[in-house]
Structure formats: C-alpha cells, structure tokens
TrEMBL record:
Residues 3-117, 121-228 form the Response regulatory domain. It comes from Anaeromyxobacter oryzae. SMART domains: REC (SM00448). This is Response regulatory domain-containing protein. PROSITE patterns: RESPONSE_REGULATORY.
C-alpha cells in the first residue's frame, strides 16, 4: 500500500483522482491549499505529492519548497495550466518527478504516481543539454526525479535537496576535471557517485560505477537501481 497527497483547489478533480487511487488499494489525503497540505505532511509520510501550481494561500512551488524541509524523501509532481510560470523553475530546483500540463489524462498521473520512488532524487551533472535531458527522462521512467547542473558553479547552486546518488561527468565547465565531483562530496558528504565520461580521466574520489560514453543506458539505470535499493530502510518504504 502506498500513500499519496493530492493538493488542488479544484476539489472535484482531487476527489475523483483520490477515488481511483483508493479503489486500487492506496491511501490518499486531499488538501485544498498549500497550508492544509503542509499540515498533513508534518504528520504523515507520503510516497508522492501531486500539487497544483496556482492556489490560494500558498502556491505549488512554495509548497514543494516547504515539504522538502518536512519530508525530503517524498517524490513531488506539479500540475499546471501555466507551463511558462516563473515559479516552475524554482520548483524544478527542488527536484520534481514531473511537470504536467493541464488538461492531463488521469492515466498518465496514475502511471507516474505508481512509479514514484521515495528517497529517489538523483543529481545529474552534465554539460551536454541533450544528454542531460535524456538521462533525466530515462530516470523518470524508473520513478526517479533529478536535479541538474551543467557546470562546477551550478553544483553550488543546487537547492536544499537530499539526493541518494549522483551521475557526474568529470569534465564540465568551471574547473579542472573532477572538480564537480569534489564539490558534490563537500555539499553532500557520503553521496554515492556514478561517473559518466567521454574521456579516460581518473576520478578524484571513490565512486560506485564508471561508464564511458557512449554507454548502455539500461546498465546505467541498473546501477542507479542498486544504489537506491541499498539505502537504509529502502525495502520498508513509506507504507511500512
């Protein structure tokens, strides 16, 4: 059994989605605004949170920010009719599993919620935008969310998140080879790292796996899966 939190001032939408999820055997809490949602998140551990972006009292971006402080392990998704909303960029820095544009089919929401991983946030450090997007999408298909950095400096600007691993290109702008890896180790002590590189650099720090470009994506995802499964309490999950 999994637990979900649905936050939307469109009560009919939230109740309909909750009914579908409940019929499947999951537990669902509903909040009409961010303040109600935050109160629920303080007392209940959720596998995933789905929130609208524009709501009274507290918007979706602010809610994701606050929930990250209460329960950084919950997967987060936002649904919005305004994909150009500036607040979305702030929310993305907090690590989103998905941004869904209204109207969205209930089946797509259910698919993402069922795959969402608690404590499933990955840092992706890659300066090739296309490869970074492809990696993030591949991770998303397995229920993992990602925050990204394209340079050494951007690793310093990652939001207050709690990743369980990082995929790191050793050669990115802003510093010598391996500097992004060093910065991540300082920012997130003990963070397991997977090296992804087109060159033959020697990683400056211990790492869990080494993939040379072009790499086999299923093998890379399998390595991420192993790291996620090795986390303390991973088998218990939110519904234990």
């Amino acid at each position: 059994m999994r637990r979900y939190l649905i936050v939307d001032d469109n009560v009919e939408f939230a109740e309909n989605l909750a009914e579908i999820l409940s019929d499947g055997g999951d537990q669902v809490a509903i909040a009409a605004n961010g303040e109600e949602a935050l109160a629920l998140a303080r007392t209940t551990t959720f596998d995933a949170v789905l929130t609208d972006m524009r709501m009274p009292l507290m918007g979706g971006a602010e809610l994701v920010h606050e929930i990250r402080r209460v329960d950084p392990g919950a997967a987060a998704m936002v649904i919005t009719a305004h994909v150009g909303d500036d607040a979305l960029e702030a929310a993305r820095r907090e690590g989103l599993l998905a941004v869904l544009q209204k109207p969205v089919a209930a089946g797509r929401i259910l698919e993402l919620l069922s795959a969402a991983r608690r404590d499933g946030l990955v840092v992706v450090v890659e300066d090739d935008d296309r490869l970074s997007d492809n990696l993030c999408e591949a991770l998303r298909t397995k229920g993992f969310a990602a925050v990204t950095a394209a340079s050494v400096l951007q690793t310093e600007r990652l939001g207050p998140v709690r990743p369980f691993c990082a995929l790191v290109d050793l050669r990115v702008p802003g510093g010598p080879d391996g500097e992004a890896m060093r910065r991540l180790a300082l920012k997130y002590p003990g963070l397991p790292m997977i090296v992804v590189t087109a060159y033959h650099e020697v990683p400056p720090l211990p790492h869990e796996a080494y993939f040379s470009k072009p790499f086999d994506t299923p093998s890379l995802l399998a390595a991420v899966e192993r790291l996620h499964a090795s986390q303390p309490g991973a088998a218990a999950g939110a519904s234990a």
